[in-house]
Design goal:
The strands form 2 sheets. The protein has a 7-stranded parallel sheet. The protein starts with a strand and ends in a 7-residue tail after the last helix. 42% of the residues are buried. α5 crosses α8. The chain has 13 helices and 12 strands. It has 316 residues and is an alpha/beta fold. The protein has helices at residues 18-25, 37-44, 61-66, 85-90, 103-118, 121-129, 133-138, 158-169, 193-198, 219-225, 242-250, 270-273, 289-309, and strands at residues 5-8, 27-30, 50-54, 72-76, 94-96, 150-154, 173-177, 188-189, 202-205, 230-233, 256-259, 278-280. Helix content is 37%, strand content 15%. Bound molecules: 2-keto-D-gluconic acid (8YV). The site of 2-keto-D-gluconic acid has 12 residues, from loops. 2-keto-D-gluconic acid binds next to loops.
Amino acid sequence: MNMPRILQIGSLSGSPNADQEIARRYQVLEYWKASDPIRFLRDEAQDIEVVATSAMTGCTAAIIDALPRLRAIVSWGVGFDSIDVDRARARGVVVSNTPDVLNDCVADLAWALLLGCARQIAWGDRNIRAHRWTERAAGLPLAPRVHHKKLGVVGLGRIGEAIAQRGRGFDMEVGYHNRNPRRDVSHRYFDSLVELATSSDFLVVATVGGSSTRHLVNEPVLRALGPAGIVVNIARGTVIDEAALVSLLSQGLVGGAALDVFEHEPQVPEALKHMDNVVLMPHVGSATIETRRAMLDLVLDNLQSFFSTGKLLTPI
Ligand code: 8YV
């Protein structure tokens, strides 16, 4: 049987056996293994109609431009800031991502980070492992209470909504900032992000990445959150002005930070690694067995749908 050919930009190593499962159904051109990528596209990929990629490996304008017959980009992950969607649209190329299937797991991680930072879980764990229970326990600063406090969500999309819903379970007052208020939710809307930060104990960033939100959470917003406030980011590192965050944390002007994403991944500012009021994770919001399986299934279903009907199941 003649399997359709696709170009895969990077290994989908975030889902176990993803590369093998894709290769069982398609003839895969492995872009990430090419020693001379430009030549590889010119010599091997001129007939390629479909690209498979991920939120991490993306798809640049240069790749889109180098594929004259390209019709679709199928991506693993909900974020598409690493894909040049404008260039794809201009070329009539459709793009799919993997929305919804990861909402709850990303929201769970946001809450694990929030609780972990507020209740000093990583700090306690580090001290026990270092045999410092008695030494440090005496100096343990009391943690802030979480329940019945104020939760601010930056970006009340599908993931933000799942985070807000969990906040209600902790009897929290929930506020949010979006470009426009949503009519279908009862949480309080703030059209000013500074005002949301001022009125929040915990500010959770759940908005899209990309140029439209770059440094949306800037120094004034972080100052407004204040010395008792904790900022959580499970969105994209670019949404927070990381240099401002490091500086305000080191001056005690922001209370704490719990971060799954960073501005220059996989680099993490050294200063953050030495702060007890900071919790760090290596961009793993969707990394559960069930969700990563569902993400791979949606990639496979989008590929199959496009090859059989010319339509994507979850176009962006
Ligand atoms: C990551 C994500 O891709 O879906 C997204 O956009 O950011 C996540 O699923 C994943 O956690 C690996 O970085």
